[in-house]
Amino acid sequence: METRGRRLLTVLLALVAAAAAPPAVSRDGREVVEVSGAPDGVVWVAQLSDLHFSVHHPERAYDFRRYVGPALAMVNPDLVLITGDLTDGKSKDLLTMKQNEVEWVEYESTIDDIIRISKLPRRIFYDLRGNHDRFGVPASGANYDFYQKYSINAKLRRQGRVQSITVENGGRKHLFVGFDSTMEIGLRGPTNLFGHPTDKQLIELDQALSQWDTGFDKVPVTKIAFGHFPLSFSALTESGKSIKDVFLKQSLAAYLCGHLHTRFGKNLKRYYHRAVQEPSLWEHFYQFNMHQGYAIQSNKENCSEEAVRTEEFWEWEMGDWRKSRSMRILAIDDGYVSYTDIDFRLGSKSIIILPTFPLDSRFMQRASASRDFECHIRGPSTFDTVRALVFSKHEIVSVSVKIYDSRPGTLEVVFDSEMKRVDSNETRGHMYLVPWNWRAFEDPSPSRFWLQIEVMDITGDTSISHLRPFSVNGLTARVNWTWKEFFVIGIQWASIYHPALWCALSLIFSLLLAPQVSAVVFKDQFTYKSLYTNGSERTLFKSLVGGFIWLFVELARVIPVWNLLLVYTIYLVFLPWLFGHPITDDNLTYMTHRGWILKRPSSGNEVVHAGIPDVMERRKMIATKRAGGR
Which residue range or ranges hold the TMEM62 C-terminal domain (predicted)? Predict the structure, then answer.
């Protein structure tokens, strides 16, 4: 009897311990949560990125506590996504780049304060690594991998590089899949700039995104992916596969990322669409504008159930917390995805407005929206109201919407109405809506009509949303990037590395060969004196050609210059570019055009080449070579 009692006591203690432990996710990293309360069919999440908490910049963590905690308490999101670069990992002089445990302790403490202030459950927070969180880390779980000690994901025992959570509400599923594509061997900066997905990770990503595709209940699913690196700064896998192909196959609503910061521009957004025809060779390397390749097919035959699904997705890079103090609120309303960005540089916000329908025709409309409109796929009730989420610290007195017509050349008000709140016994947030005759706003121009919402609270404080164009018939307003925006998000840097390298080597080789060929072929035909002989009879073109040939001939005679070019070519192809310690406390090694030469952790003497195409930053690293020696 006594033995039986001890066994019973042991079982009870084990149950208590299991209940007290953090909730573990399923083995494949998938969670499902159901949120109740109005508004039905609507979920919203908060995104933050590039926090860069630093011992040299304590104001970043201070402002995070000051603004983000109260804002999250007001917004009450269903999820909070933190997409990388949680800490800075840089010395004050920016020359040494490695993990600093003090910064991670600060991160942990700040997040604990945010959870306490916002009163949100810890389980809705997801934090991913960025490249700064990998500086100098030899392998996951190894020395200096403080992410595994201090991050929310690690504390909640979320294992693996792919995590997913499905939020269910109003008969819809909203699937969020996060993935960590940081380097397996975390090099120190600046040769740690790109995401490096693997074939294994893309398989896991594809499986996570398709987990509801075989369901028999046919519940609508909206898919969102989130990570740190934009696709322009993501390398191909070892077999040459791309994250973009997985996203197109799954036809995401959007991919949320960070990494680039707002110093390059505010339009760091890109629309991807699988064209019917085979893309040109150049499209693998760059895209000139935000909507390149966009084509609308709105024939009636596409309304059949056998119509091919449009493969598409939006990539939305958000601003950084580091300098811009940015936070994003993203909402999914009956499958329509919209967002608003909040700037805390001017202080806290007492009112936040997020219009959820109609969508901004510049940054949120997809090619499939035109088919949805023509074929009434979502049903007319979706179009019957203008809708917006309004978050406020104080009681709301009035919410009104104005629609402007820009055709006269100036903005002329054509619709002005008060919006009514959706009342419910149980609510997670306040949705305001107003009926409208949406057919009156059908127009072949995607930017003719503009929408704006104004809110006033009981204290008299007012807030106005940004003017945004819309198109109820699903057309998209084209937006061109600035040259800086094109430079960072329009170019596929991983794809151009090898072509650029070999083009540069070919140019150098031609500079070696051309002077010698010119000296042999032309000998004394092209001299400085002959260029000015009969000058009146020579055309400008002939003078330029003759001048170049003369230059090549003279270069062949300047032996030191020719020898320097030869040595430089041999150096680039065969010799190490520089020596250093790319991993914290590791042995001295070297870098070539194939990357850093390293030994794979826990694999004996296996040698790997790490950091392609990150070594494109070599010039910066050579200028700061001191960083590699620490």
Answer: 498-616
Instruction: Tell me if 243 sits within 8 A of 202, measured CB to CB.
Output: yes
Tell me how far the alpha carbon of residue 110 is from its chain's centroid. 24
pLDDT of residue 549: 66
Type of residue numbered 571:
Y
Angle among Cα 275, 280, 286 to the nearest 5 degrees reads 95
Task: Give every CB contact of residue 238 below 8 A, 6+ residues apart in sequence.
Answer: 198, 199
Given a cut of 70, the residues of the chain with pLDDT beneath it are: 1-29, 215-217, 275-281, 293-308, 375-380, 514-516, 518-543, 545-550, 552-557, 601-605, 615-630
3-state secondary structure of 93: coil
> Which run of H or of E encompasses 60?
helix 59-63
In 304-384 the beta strands, taken as DSSP E runs, fall at 312-317, 326-333, 336-343, 351-357
For 216-263, where are the E strands, in sequence order? 221-226, 254-257
Copy the structure tokens of residue 103: 């910064």
Rounded Cα distance, 610 and 13, in Å: 48
Q: Which long-range contacts (CB under 8 A, 24 or more apart) does 413-417 make?
A: 414/449
The two most distant CA atoms of the chain are separated, in Å, by 121
- What pLDDT is stored for residue 610 in this prediction? 80
pLDDT computed for residue 582 by the predictor: 83
132, exposed or middle or buried, with CB in 10 Å at 0-12, 13-18, 19+? buried
Query: What amino acid is encoded at 215 in this protein?
Result: G
CA–CA distance, 135 with 113 (Å, rounded to integer): 26
Locus of tokens 């699937």: 175
Contact residues for 356 (Cβ-Cβ < 8 A; gap 6+)? 42, 331, 333, 336, 338, 387, 388, 389, 431
Q: What are 71's two structure tokens?
A: 């804002």
CA-closest candidate to residue 477, choices 614, 291, 627 = 291
Cα–Cα dist 36/424, whole Å: 11
Buried b (16+ CB within 10 A) or exposed e, 77-103: bbbbbbbbbbbbbbbeeeebbbbbeeb
Taking Cα atoms as reference points, which of 274, 307, 448, 453 lies closest to residue 374? 307
| pLDDT for 21 | 41
Per DSSP, which regions of 259-325 are E strands? 269-273, 312-317
CA atoms within 13 A on the CB side of 288: 5
Cα 78 to Cα 175: distance, rounded to the nearest angstrom: 12
Q: Which residue has the tokens 């208590």?
A: 16
118-160 pLDDT tens trace:
999 999 999 999 999 999 898 887 788 999 999 999 999 998 8
For 398-439, write each residue's pLDDT tens digit.
999 999 999 988 999 999 999 999 988 888 899 999 999 999
Tokens coding 395: 């009681």
For residue 196, give Cα distances in angstroms to 99, 219, 316. 20, 34, 19
For residue 607, give the nearest of 616, 619, 594 by alpha carbon. 594
The predicted structure's pLDDT at residue 486: 93
Task: For 440-481, give the DSSP string.
Answer: GG--S-TTSEEEEEEEEETTS-EEEPPPEEE-TT------PP
The CA radius of gyration of the chain, in Å to the nearest whole number, is 29
Q: Which two tokens stand for residue 189?
A: 């900066």
Is the separation of the CB atoms in 185 and 610 below 8 Å?
Answer: yes
**Which pTM value belongs to this model?**
0.86
From residue 528, give the alpha-carbon distance in Å to each of 321, 522, 531, 534, 548.
60, 13, 5, 13, 11
Which of 171, 168, 192 minimizes the C-alpha distance to 182? 192
Beta bridge partners of 430: 390
